[in-house]
């Protein structure tokens, strides 16, 4: 697929590439809007079910004399967020190196029979596009990681077992669970961005394949949230 020529003679992105990018925006931002503000906000899904278990966790922790197990769980959550944030930085570094040698990468990959021909500016845009997604994912994971530190502070301030039935203790447990849920929400946002970034790899092969990948990711994310076996098990 050869790019069109602009008025100054430089090749521009093909119309199919532009349409594929618009379709990505509809899938990515449209799903995020539907979950946060649209019709899916009021629909019970996996996140809502897990949030109930988080509240149950904190209410149970109130009645424990020894909370070592809870501390280990919080450490595990923090480590997971740190892992994803670090991975995003590593991928971003690789994409930066790829951008510096975009011409060479383009020449090599276009030797493959299934990779469509495209101008260099199109390849550079696709790499920048993936870099943008990884930056968004990093900020989501980094904020989720930071929130787990705040959760640790809130958890350390939980009232002791003898005061578990007081109104103050119940409110504190609820707020701690809400903070855990907030961390989980940003983690989910980062993971969803990673899913779409993986679909974005198909853009180097074909814009049509990229559009199909975006649609598949949207369907997969929706099914895992609202139709998965995990949701059925957790939503007790």
TrEMBL record:
Transmembrane region(s): 15-34, 82-102, 123-145, 194-222
Translocase keyword on record: no
A Pfam family assignment: DUF599
Entries under InterPro entries matching the protein: DUF599
Top-level taxonomic group: Bacteria
Taxonomic classification: Bacteria, Pseudomonadati, Pseudomonadota, Alphaproteobacteria, Hyphomicrobiales
Keyword list, A-Z: Membrane, Transmembrane, Transmembrane helix
The protein's name in its UniProt record: DUF599 domain-containing protein
């Amino acid at each position: 697929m050869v790019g069109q020529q602009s008025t100054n003679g430089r090749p521009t992105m093909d119309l199919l590439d532009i349409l594929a990018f618009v379709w990505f925006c509809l899938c990515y931002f449209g799903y995020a809007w539907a979950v946060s503000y649209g019709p899916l906000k009021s629909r019970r899904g996996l996140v809502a079910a897990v949030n109930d278990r988080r509240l149950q966790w904190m209410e149970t922790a109130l009645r424990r004399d020894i909370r070592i197990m809870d501390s280990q769980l919080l450490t595990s959550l923090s480590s997971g967020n740190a892992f994803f944030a670090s991975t995003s930085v590593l991928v971003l570094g690789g994409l930066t190196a790829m951008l510096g040698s975009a011409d060479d990468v383009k020449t090599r990959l276009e030797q493959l029979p299934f990779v469509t021909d495209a101008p260099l500016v199109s390849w550079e845009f696709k790499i920048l596009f993936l870099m943008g997604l990884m930056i968004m994912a990093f900020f989501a994971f980094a904020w989720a990681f930071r929130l787990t530190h705040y959760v640790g502070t809130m958890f350390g301030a939980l009232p002791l077992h003898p005061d578990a039935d007081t109104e103050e203790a119940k409110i504190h447990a609820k707020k701690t669970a809400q903070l855990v849920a907030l961390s989980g929400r940003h983690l989910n946002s980062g993971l969803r961005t990673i899913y779409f970034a993986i679909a974005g790899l198909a853009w180097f092969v074909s814009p049509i394949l990229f559009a199909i990948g975006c649609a598949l990711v949207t369907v997969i994310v929706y099914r895992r949230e609202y139709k998965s076996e995990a949701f059925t098990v957790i939503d007790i």
